[in-house]
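Before the break, one more example. Copy the sequence into your notebook; we will annotate it together after we see the structure.
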Amino acid sequence: METFLHCIDASSGSSEDGFSAIKLTALGRPQFLLQFSEVLVKWRRFFHQMAAEQGQGGRAALEMRLEVEKLQEALAKLGIATKAESQHWFTGENVGESGTVDLLDWNSLIDSRTKLSKLLLIPNIKTRQLEPLLSHFTEEEELQMKRMLQRMDVLAKRATETGVRLMVDAEQSYFQPAISRLTLEMQRRFNRERAVIFNTHQCYLKEAYDNVSVDVELSRREGWHFGTKLVRGAYMDQERERAAKIGYEDPINPTYEKTNEMYHRCLDYVLEEIKHSRKANVMVATHNEDTVKFTLRRLGLQDDGAWDPSFREEGLLWAVAGHV
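Here is what the structure looks like once it is written out:
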């Protein structure tokens, strides 16, 4: 944490609008991030399973909307909770329009039930029980978790005070759900006036577009500034080796071309948000010449060197490494 603080101060001293990148695995126990990620994945997978049972399989994440009544009936049928017991889960802020629940409403259930070692109760389809996430954590592990959150808070405050944008690096997909979740919590707190905290979205992942669009929608609903660094990804060999070893689906796009398509799709989505809301920011972090050209075309660079006026205001931060 102290090293990161020095980096933030150095960025502030060397430029008026600098940035620093940090890795959350350096601020706490990677094992905690792994466990937390596994639970978040299971929670989201359960949502998709319920959506499929309601005939919504194959839709984009934000297009899935569960009918609350049917969801409560399914939970009761699984033996997870009676309809009466689950009614208090789906009230007020946790239910959208017309008695439905989308993925963001679903995720808000985690917020309302999250208390460190009692972070979350996950439905286990096989045992028909709600299982606590971290009930087996020792007192020392609980302290480790608190320290990690405290360190993140210290860094975010220093970045805010010094005018530096803090970019949270992406890591392996088995850590990333927890990293993204904790980064979102910092964005909620520190991105009220401007984008201070940037998440990183890896476009070689099959779920990249869903991840970007869900995070942008959350920022819209809650009124904070979205910020992301878009990358392709750096852990393909590790990801595929682990997927094959443990026996889950390869999370990486099958081809180079598919990853390019995903990158441009995610970038286009964020640029549209910048154009219409002025509350989104993106770093185009790429060595790829085609993506650089795509970005320039998308920004409306004219033959005379002028830009599309829609993008003249703050909202786009782009870095081109290797190609100018």
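Residues 76 and 82 are 5 Å apart (CA to CA). The chain has a mean pLDDT of 81. Try to locate both features in your own notes.
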